[in-house]
Amino acid sequence: MASPGGPAAQAAAAALANALGVVARWSVGLGIAGSVAQASLFDVDGGERAVMFNRLSGVSQKVVGEGTHIMIPWFQTPHKFDIRTRPRLINTVTGTKDLQNVNLTLRVLCRPEVDKLPNIYQTLGKDYDERVLPSIGNEVLKSVIARFNADELLTKRAEVSLQVSQELLKRSEGFNLVLEDVAITHLTFGQEFAKAIEAKQVAEQDALRSNYIVAKAEQEKLAAVIRAEGEAEAANLISNATRRAGTALVELRKIEAAREIAETMARSGNVAYLPSGGNVLLNLAGGGGAR
Questions:
Q1: 43: left (phi over 0), alpha (psi -120 to 50) or beta
Q2: CA distance 192 to 235
Q3: Which of 47, 166, 179, 197 is close enough to 84 for a disulfide, judged by CB 3.0 to 4.6 Å?
């Protein structure tokens, strides 16, 4: 019977060691190969494009589209760009033509020109929107707003937005940017202008109230003149009638007035009628005889 430490056992141990060495070598080789393969591949997601930088030739003018692509590790480096339309807010405080301060917020929907991405990367970098839009946006806003008075920014807002959009489009073309939409979303004035508007409204209300008072006085004056003319005409008619009929018209008016007075007194419960002649005996004793 062979002992545990005999030649057969040693041969088996040596064979196992050799097999493990082969497996280790293959594992290292496969690991290196996998790392190299992983480093040689890169993905470009939907809505993105890539610009390849080569350490030997520089930036490639070919834009890499969506999908999985091969590159040479260390020699080539992909730089990805988001080409989807994104909103950008530009805030500025500027002055109007009549020297009023106004606070504006401009919303810009922009994206880069896909064919010009290599040039954008070379001249502006990946943060192109941060470098370009605030500067040209503020410049265009200050230039356009200075052409209008403060009240015209409200009454001609569509025209102001159109001019801002047209000039901003022209300026952005030189930076290879595409502006999908430009709109003024926020517009406020300074406290001085707000106080001036309030004072103007109060003055207009006072002017309207004064016009109403003047018109009312004119109407009252006209009514008084018409009333006086009517009374004069009535007096003239009465005078003419008196001359023609003598005192009969006056007596008629007296009778009518007396009748109206009598009817009024008759309807009153506090009036007692006494005969004009003779003695009137009032029995205040409640039925007793005279003494």
A1: beta
A2: 64
A3: 47
34-92 pLDDT tens trace: 666 677 889 999 999 999 999 999 999 999 999 999 888 888 999 999 999 999 999 99
Q: If DSSP states are collapsed to H, E and C, what string results for the chain?
A: CCCCCCHHHHHHHHHHHHHHHHHHHHHHHHHHHHHHHHHCEEEECCCEEEEEEECCCEEEEEEECCEEEECCCCCEEEEEEECCCEEEEEEEEEECCCCCEEEEEEEEEEEECHHHHHHHHHHCCCCHHHHHHHHHHHHHHHHHHCCCCCCHHHHCHHHHHHHHHHHHHHHHHCCCEEEEEEEEEEEEECHHHHHHHHHHHHHHHHHHHHHHHHHHHHHHHHHHHHHHHHHHHHHHHHHHHHHHHCCHHHHHHHHHHHHHHHHHHHCCCCCCCCCCCCCCCCCCCCCCCCC
Of 151, 177, 152, 176, which Cα lies nearest the Cα of 163? Answer: 152
Is 117 exposed, middle or buried (CB count within 10 Å of its CB: 0-12, 13-18, 19+)? buried
The identity of residue 169, as a single letter, is L
Is pLDDT of 190 > 80?
no
Neighbours of 164 (CB within 10 A): 22
pLDDT, tens digit (0-9, with 9 covering 90-100), for 141-170: 999 999 999 889 888 988 999 999 999 999
